[in-house]
From TrEMBL:
A biological process term (GO) from this entry: positive regulation of translation
Cellular compartments per GO CC: plasma membrane
Species for this entry: Cellulomonas bogoriensis 69B4 = DSM 16987
Pfam families linked: EFG_C (PF00679), GTP_EFTU (PF00009), GTP_EFTU_D2 (PF03144), LepA_C (PF06421)
Gene Ontology MF: a single term: translation elongation factor activity
Keyword check for Transcription: no
InterPro entries: EF-4, EFG_III/V, EFG_V-like, EFTu-like_2, G_TR_CS, LepA_C_sf, LepA_CTD, LepA_IV
Family per similarity comment: Belongs to the GTP-binding elongation factor family. LepA subfamily.
Enzyme class (EC, first level): hydrolase
Subcellular location(s) of the protein: Cell membrane
Catalytic activity of the protein: GTP + H2O = GDP + phosphate + H(+)
Protein known as: Elongation factor 4
Amino acid sequence: TPPELLRNFCIIAHIDHGKSTLADRMLQLTGVVEARAMREQYLDRMDIERERGITIKSQAVRMPWALADESGAPQPYALNMIDTPGHVDFTYEVSRSLAACEGAVLLVDAAQGIEAQTLANLYLAMENDLAIIPVLNKIDLPAAQPERYAEEIAGLVGGDPADVLKVSGKTGEGVPALLDRIVRDVPAPTGEADAPARAMIFDSVYDTYRGVVTYVRVVDGNLSPRERIVMMSTRATHELLEIGVIAPEATPTKGLGVGEVGYLITGVKDVRQSKVGDTVTNANKPAAESLGGYHEPKPMVFSGLYPIDGSDYPVLRDALDKLKLNDAALVYEPETSVALGFGFRVGFLGLLHLEIVRERLEREFDLALISTAPNVVYEVTMEDGAVLTVTNPSEFPGGKIREVREPVVKATILAPSDYIGAVMELCQTRRGELLGMDYLSPERVEMRYTLPLAEIVFDFFDQLKSKTKGYASLDYEPAGEQASALVKVDILLQGEQVDAFSAIVHKDKAYAYGVMMAGKLRELIPRQQFEVPIQAAVGSRVIARETIRAIRKDVLAKCYGGDISRKRKLLEKQKEGKKRMKTIGRVDVPQEAFIAALSSE
Ligand code: GDP
Ligand code: MG
């Protein structure tokens, strides 16, 4: 297809504002998917995505759409819809998807208005000079307030509120008009057809049968089947075994030219060989310069993952090796814990990424896992000038420290103006610094903060939601590091350090953490034949103390003689629990106690 007839666009929307439903409707209206083959959320292919209703991996689909030109003759356009992931952890992937488009549909729920996530992605799209088509969705809902929100959106993107399209992804109302608008408002791609090929990778997905399927947007030149290609970040060359478009299944073509969007297959087995953001070029006629904007994925949050049953360790290792094929951002290395046994320290892009990986491990590999409280990466400079990178709090160095640096983020919070005070108070307790504040309308305000990432990974979002009755939304992006007064708090059981509970916290919060953790363990650890002190300490200084009194708990005493089978069950349970006892010093601790202490807030 010549570039004049191509339109590449994405849909920017907050989770639940109806992106998948609208995409489904477009596929149906353009005839790409027949109504009877339509299953809900056609594009959300991964099971977890479907169940949670979120989009994790972007996909691209090509749709035909005819629109009359000035003379009235219908022109056969091809629209490439690039589905962007919708969560803060995947900002980099979003930015690459946006870079593959000339236009963006800004989709806003007409009953909710715009949210922080949408706003952040909208700014990203504007920075990339994309044409923005503002659209209010779900106008079929009785609670929809299209007039009110049209004004808000027009205020943000410029233009007349009357030009904001109103659609229903559910009923299909307004969707053909939206497709027409995409053809009219989104610029056709431009590029140099005769130049060496430059195609940007905006997604790569591991497929069991085909190996890695790489999604690309061609900027210049042409890629053809069977030729050799080069990945410009690594200079690795591969044979192009297959190239084509998704419509909506993979359909091989004779190549992809300027402005086209599609997939390619080289037979590599690991997404790390086909990196998002990288530039693909021809091996026999390589481009001099790559397209720019490429980053290595950088894990921001770390957590220890341990199998509850120690004999599952090899299964966990194999499972991580498999997941890694499909997830370039996943990093891990073996680690051992006195409390939890053999496991891995795993790095993630953020909390959702952590949750997704954990859930996939449990679901697809049938593993029962325990994970330690997530922590960020610290950079510690010692008095003698040595610099250490700490990804596990229990490895935080003792001795003379000159400076500790922690990652910070730039956060955007959108909230009704009634909650400004509540939001400010929360951000204050989380060591936030207000950068600025803007009213989107008299009722809604956008607040921008710098916050330590560590304060966000610890239940910030839940707190924000509860303090604003669910009305606030949050988005954040990495914003470098800052020096902070951080200390390590250790938890000691009878004088022995319990490694899984060490935490790095701001010095003003050390006491609260120590009291909370010691209290929790006192509740959870059964009494022993001797008294067991639980201490929280910063270095050699004890900051909190609890004691487990010495009484042996008689399990059978509870049964009052009566029911024999119940007694037997209890004994068996106790035996099983014993098997999974961990010994810290002289203290026997059932693993359940650790799990419980780590899992609740
Ligand atoms: P996504 O998270 O942005 O992909 O949103 P979905 O497409 O999964 O939609 C979220 C919820 O909104 C689902 O329950 C949809 O059925 C519902 N929904 C989506 N579009 C419409 C619409 O136009 N009208 C109504 N009434 N509901 C919609
Ligand atoms: Mg979706």
